[in-house]
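Work Package 4 report. The design task specified in the project plan requires that, given a folded chain encoded as structure tokens, an amino acid be chosen for each position. We show below one input record used in the internal validation round.
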């Protein structure tokens, strides 16, 4: 069983499927009147968020509370970080408070790895997004959603062998794309990445993907899912494309492109969405969209991750 969750590259196919299967068990709890498990009673988990977040932070908090853990929500804004306190000193403070696990989101790529490798604190660390590096629980919830839609009730124990996924947009700044690329490859899916040349990272040719700059060409063959990425304007310090209209016409899921997709093609987005830029409302709100399912499934996946790394087992007791 994994000690930390820092990157999907660290997951084997077996460990990834085990986490997805545990998430299935957690999802089954959602149908019960009492949705809580006592599994992490007496454990204290800190959500250490150095970046703003809605879906990820709340999803982790719901997951932790459903597992009966005590939760500390730390926001860099309004804390001693704003006075210049280092990550090390913040962690040392939390260590003395007796936390049992850390969920960290940080603008610097590699911050969760640093925390896991240093001797500042000896507890499991979960990466909730670091810079432009990775966002492993987002990739797991995406895979969970895709597996459920593709395989239905017979998804346990399965990967995504043969599934074709097209990831579109701001790959350069996307930790979601990076985590998904490695996880989907482990699970047997075929991934095509589509973006303007300026938004394809250097070295992407060494990733287990097909790179395309033509969205219409990539969607000309049947695909199981189209995953649209948010244009991360806040990380852009230079012009990566001339204007929003050109981006939407070239790489957005417009109404025209959506209409040409097969009815079985799933529409995915990690959120928050820029409607009219990377995705049209017709696609986002359609019956093919699983965007809200992704949000709901995020709770089950994060419950599975926390349960597995803090208990050391994937076998779920419902007592």
């Amino acid at each position: 069983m994994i000690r930390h969750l820092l990157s999907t590259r660290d997951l084997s196919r077996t460990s990834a499927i085990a986490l997805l299967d545990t998430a299935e068990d957690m999802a089954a709890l959602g149908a019960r009147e009492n949705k809580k498990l006592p599994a992490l009673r007496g454990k204290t988990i800190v959500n250490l968020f150095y970046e703003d977040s809605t879906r990820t932070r709340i999803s982790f908090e719901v997951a932790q509370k459903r597992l009966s853990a005590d939760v500390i929500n730390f926001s860099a804004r309004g804390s001693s970080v704003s006075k210049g306190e280092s990550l090390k000193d913040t962690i040392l403070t939390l260590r003395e408070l007796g936390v049992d696990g850390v969920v960290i989101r940080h603008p610097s790529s590699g911050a969760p790895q640093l925390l896991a490798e240093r001797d500042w604190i000896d507890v499991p660390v979960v990466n909730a997004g670091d810079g432009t590096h990775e966002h492993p629980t987002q990739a797991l919830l995406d895979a969970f959603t895709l597996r459920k839609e593709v395989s239905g009730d017979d998804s346990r124990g399965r990967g995504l062998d043969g599934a074709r996924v097209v990831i579109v947009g701001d790959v350069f700044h996307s930790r979601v794309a990076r985590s998904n690329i490695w996880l989907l490859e482990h699970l047997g899916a075929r991934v095509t990445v589509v973006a303007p040349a300026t938004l394809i990272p250097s070295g992407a040719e060494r990733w287990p993907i097909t790179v395309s700059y033509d969205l219409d060409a990539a969607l000309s063959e049947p695909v199981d899912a189209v995953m649209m990425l948010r244009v991360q304007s806040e990380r852009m310090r230079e012009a990566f494309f001339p204007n929003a209209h050109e981006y939407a016409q070239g790489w957005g899921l417009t109404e025209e492109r959506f209409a040409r997709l097969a009815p079985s093609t799933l529409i995915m987005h990690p959120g928050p969405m820029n409607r009219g830029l990377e995705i049209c409302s017709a696609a986002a709100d359609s019956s093919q969209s699983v965007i809200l399912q992704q949000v709901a499934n995020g709770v089950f996946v994060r419950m599975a991750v926390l349960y597995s790394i803090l208990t050391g087992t994937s076998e779920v007791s419902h007592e």
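The beta strands are 44-49, 70-75, 101-106, 125-130, 164-168, 190-194, 210-212, 225-228, 266-268. Validation will be extended to a larger panel in the next phase.
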